[in-house]
Amino acid sequence: MAQAAAHHSHDHDHGHHDPQELKMLGFWIFLVTDVILFSTLFATFVVLRNSTAGGPGGAELFNMTGVIIETFLLLTSSFTSGLAVLAMNKGSMKGLINWLIVTAILGLGFIGFEVYEFVELVHEGANFGTSAFLSAFFTLVGTHGLHVSLGLVWMIGLMFQLKKRGLTPETKGKVSALSLYWHFLDAVWIFLLTVVYLMGVM
Amino acid sequence: MLDKIKEFASTFFVTGDPMIYGADVSIALATIGIVFVLTYFKKWGWLWKNWLTTVDHKKVGIMYILAAILMLFRGGVDALLMRLQLATPDVTLLHPEHYNQIFTTHGTIMILFMAMPLMFGLFNIAVPLQIGARDVAFPFLNALSFWLFFMGAMLFNLSFVIGGSPDAGWLSYPPLSELQFSPGVGQNFYIWGIQISGIGSLATGINFIVTIIKMRAPGMTWMKMPVFTWSVFSSCVIIIFAFPILTITLALLFLDRFGGGHFFTLDFGGNPMMYINLIWMWGHPEVYIVVIPAFGIYSEVISVFSKKKLFGYKSMVYAMFMIAILSFFTWAHHFFTMGSGADVNAFFAISTMVIAIPTGVKVFNWLFTMYRGKITFKTPMMWAIAFIPNFLIAGLTGVMLSVAPADFQFHNSYFLVAHFHSALIGGVVFGYLAGLYYWWPKMFGFTLPETPGKWAFWFWNIGFYVCFIPQYSLGLMGMTRRLSTYGWDTGWQPLNLVSTVGAFLMGIGFLFQVLQILLGIKNFRKLKDTTGDPWDGHTLEWSIPSPAPEYNFATIPQVEERDDWWAEKDKRAKGIFRKQPPIEAIHMPKNSAIPFIMSVFFFIAGFGFVFGWSFFYIPGLIGVAICMICRSFFSYDGDYYIPADEVKRTEAAIRGSV
Ligand code: HEM
Ligand SMILES: [Cu+2]
Prior knowledge:
The complex is a heterodimer. Chain A is mainly α.
């Protein structure tokens, strides 16, 4: 950020603000709102988890092998997104891009498994409208999956921007925000794993 | 073929009611009129460049306020129709279904499309100026928030003439709002209108929190910050905790209706009571989201027009924050009668009563501020004073409602209707009107004429009591809310008639305000605010010319005191002048068309979801995505500099000299 500071320092005395700092704070607050969003979904799930209306429950449905592979993929991708930021801080564009590619592939794998799992469930006759429990399950897990998918689109777009613009304060800020977002999704997944799957099969 | 079109049109457009044909005609005429005027005076470019693509917080604020006043009119007409229907027994102006639609749209519009945007308008006008900033933290996002609100509101209003209005109440309780019991598209309009504008509200919350934390002028510590800004901060904190809950609640209801889910249905394990909990976890804090900024305005106005510092500034701030936190622990008082059990009810009854304490603190502070003050009775001050006795009534009846066992009597009666209107009109609307009068000169560069304003004030005020006081009695006499007609044998006729008269008095008050604005525009030159400080204000927004130049402050002020501008004037009177730093080039955000275009795509997507038309919602969603990607790719050159020379020239022109 030394470059950023140099670039903007003359602005400070006439009331200009470091845009990267503002954006980062804004992004943190956005994550707070996302936490509330997920909490609401979790609460809904917990209320409805036994409302299977005579249909199948978590114990019968969940395929834990798939879930464990998903967990492994996502946790690893969170780690590699950290490595991407480390490479960026070292000023290595190549390392950054490569680690982002690895992260994206792992994320894609996660989504692939999740979609497969959903399709399986539907084949077994456990679909979104079968019971309140399943509505809540698909919505909660699906919302997380949607977040991961959006993160992937963002990641790919960002790689193009990095190619075009190089490492500037702006692109660096975007990478930091993305990595923060990715770790956040990881944390949400841990809760999902516990509340939805582990407690579901217990 | 022709028959098919006819058949489609007769289900698509709402038909069979003269009022709706009237609305069709007036919408068509207004559209033609606007298009004609813009074309005739060659104003399209001007409109696009100065308004539709602007990211200037002051202009965004003005657009919010304009839209909100339009919505106040629509919601007000709804209210008058309902009151006409209830004026005497057996009136058949509105059929029961139509009455249901009207109270639903009235409530929704008043809270989400009138109070919220009016509030956001005032945030935009005042906050950056009060904290000595050139802008909000994210000007692009700010414009986007506005357009999302606007498109959401338009989508909601469209339901009146296309498809049919929602009719399950302003909070759309299931199972009534489920597909099974509300098969029409009205509920979908409700869901998407609110959802789209709700995203905007959430973004505004984030935006102003960052603005207030990061962009205060140097020297403005937290405890030197103007009270209104404090109130905005508290309100935004509530927004970021409450609005995600609303987003999810509406999304789940939509999934039930659209995707065959069973969150809130009666069958397959759904739980309607969960919706009621969720919606009030947003709904109760929402009331405080809109009222806390009004408290902020009262504090500013009362201290300025009493020529005194605000009494108990710190306790004011703490009280606001306490109210913000407590507002999340009271939601169940909206359904004491719905079987939660004695212990739960007791908890929520007590937490509700506790809110009366910080509120009481504030009222005493306002009274002490006025005590021995040199009060001038300008319109903003009149609204602020009128609020106090009224809020006492609203507060006392609120405490009565919070007594859980007693609520079994009041619940969903006209007593409740009277209570929440006292709070919402006497607290929120009066506050925003005070704010509007107060900041009007800062927005437009002239003050509004006082005489028609005073007429408006008295009509509104007297009308307000005449309308709502009888309703307390009606509630105790057993009249329930959402009732479309009643019989002579009930004995409710006289009080209802009085109440309707009161509603019309308020309507006349509104007309006086319109007249006031027109007269103000006509006598613009005479009413011009040349000082920039027509009320002898305390805070920084009054230290710059009216209307504020696009960059707000030519040089960023260095803040020393709590009421910095007031202190500064004192010093200047004593001949002590602060050294002004030299004027430098100013960094400004560029206009952008993306917020507007993206919101149009949101509208298209929302419209598609309302009717379940994939050929609308898929392109709409794709458009939204493309706009986001464009924004991300173009965000690198979103700003420019105004050269120092140009700033100097502008300042010289508006101030006469530098
Ligand atoms: C200007 C004068 C107003 C009048 C005469 C008026 C009148 C009414 C009437 C007659 C009802 C229907 C009561 C029922 O049948 O249950 C109603 C409901 C309601 N009003 Fe107003 N109103 C006014 C202003 C406002 C304002 C400013 C707000 C909010 C900021 C507001 C919010 C509501 C809400 C939330 C409902 C409940 C709707 C529902 O039951 O779903 N009103 N009003
Ligand atoms: Cu409440």
